[in-house]
Design brief:
Shape of chain A: elongated
CATH superfamily of the largest domain in chain A: Jelly Rolls
Order of helices and strands of chain A: HHEEEEEEEEHHHEHHEE
CATH topology of the largest domain in chain A: Jelly Rolls
Distance between the termini of chain A: 44 Å
CATH class of the largest domain in chain A: Mainly Beta
Largest sheet of chain A: 4 strands, antiparallel
Strand content of chain A: 15-25%
Strand order of the largest sheet of chain A: 1-8-3-6
Radius of gyration of chain A: 19 Å
Oligomer: homodimer
Largest interface: A-B, 39 and 39 residues
Number of helices of chain A: 7
Helix content of chain A: 25-40%
Structural class of chain A: alpha+beta
Number of domains of chain A: 2
Number of strands of chain A: 11
CATH architecture of the largest domain in chain A: Sandwich
DNA sequence: AAGAATATGTTGTTTTTGCAACAGAAGGAG
DNA sequence: CTCCTTCTGTTGCAAAAACAACATATTCTT
């Protein structure tokens, strides 16, 4: 567990805590480590959870697949990020989505009840972690609202522009790397892969952008549309 | 301010607090009341906020409108609900959406910093409110994920089915009232109003549902599709 | 109650998407 | 290196959505 200390140090949940406090927190919240092979399910739609989880290694997708195999990716979880926190409190109901390892991954789970319980006399750093949790929830909230903004666009082109310019803003550059393959990007934007490919082709013809695998170059005319 | 006590009593943010504690909380967080006429902007995209707000009267829409007037409704805020909380912490960046009064409305704003500050010696109920805030954020998170589920459906019909069956589940009945006009429902599901009207007509012809203004009757065959 | 303003339903046309099938490219395994 | 699998781009076609324009209904105002 201690080998992930550098991840925990950078983790929002533990921000402001010393190494010593992080270690005590891990014990206090009954932290458990588990590995998943790429493609394996970490959590399933319909599960009830009472743990807050941190991704220590690999990459995960929060996604959903319907009866006919149509997949839709809600979000992408990267190293150090927290997931499951919105469903960990009592009365939260069951998970709405599957969590799947996009690569071989290692997950650390913390008991939510113990994390939130005010054993404040012994663990003064709990209150810090609770504030951090509020930040994490608020941040995730804003991420979801941004994604709703992309999905609310009507056409495939508009969705692409909305997503790519948002990503460019975040990466502070018109030269961006995205965390998705083409199929995954289509699943994320809820459009057909081949239609999206077609649209990207047209945008390339119109010199709006250039693509090399997961790398996108957005040209200056691009911003006129966003 | 005291006249809204019954709303505060039912409010998630204050749940578990006595009337006395609620009153002290209102003072402690510098609560302010403001009225808005229907159609008036409560908050605007690009604003920075440091208050958590509660809707005491009326109804609000969290929405966004692009240059061409295409509106998209992110969510509907009802009496007693909290809004703005995800953008109230420092470092949250600017608001992504407008907040507009859908009816004449009254809003109470609480200073977020004071709400969260651990003046625990004098206000032991702060910690309770903080836990409540976590519940609210987690709940809103789940709401947004559900909405993403609706928007991720490909066709207008699938979006309608996804939304209506979710609403039926929530209202625990196939006979439901929705908080939107037709145009607003279209804006919420990010589809064209007339196309949606057409689709609702077809579904009526197929005896999947019946509509009377904002009231929907979902027939038993409906569930086969959801 | 009358008239204006707004909301809803309807229809036809144009554009976009979804789907299916395939070919070339890239990547991995032996 | 070669075979095999997966990924990406392309095309044609059928289905669906967006758009526009209009008719009817409903609500609001005075």
């Amino acid at each position: 567990m201690e080998e992930y200390l550098d991840i925990f140090r950078k983790n929002f949940l533990f921000s402001g805590l010393s190494d010593e406090e992080i270690s005590r927190m891990l014990v206090c919240t009954d932290a458990r480590e588990k590995s998943y092979a790429s493609g394996e399910y970490v959590l399933r739609r319909g599960d009830t959870v009472s743990e807050i989880s941190i991704l220590a290694e690999g990459r995960l997708h929060i996604q959903r697949e319907d009866y006919w195999g149509n997949r839709s990716i809600v979000s992408d979880v990267r190293i150090g990020e927290v997931f499951g926190e919105s469903y960990a409190l009592p009365e939260s109901g069951v998970l709405m989505n599957d969590v799947v390892a996009a690569e071989n991954s290692i997950v650390i789970s913390l008991d939510c009840h113990r994390l939130l319980s005010p054993c404040s006399s012994s663990c003064p750093f709990h209150s810090r972690a609770i504030m951090n949790l509020i930040s994490i929830l608020a941040g995730k909230n804003r991420m979801l609202v941004r994604k709703i903004g992309h999905l609310s666009e009507r056409t495939t082109r508009e969705k692409l522009i909305s997503y790519l310019s948002d990503e460019a803003l975040r990466q502070k550059s018109g030269s961006i790397d995205i965390p998705f393959s083409r199929q995954q990007l289509a699943d994320y934007l809820a459009v057909d892969r081949s239609a999206m490919s077609k649209e990207l082709g047209k945008m390339r013809d119109e010199r709006l952008l250039e693509t090399h695998k997961n790398h996108f170059e957005l040209f200056s005319v691009f911003q006129e549309f966003s």
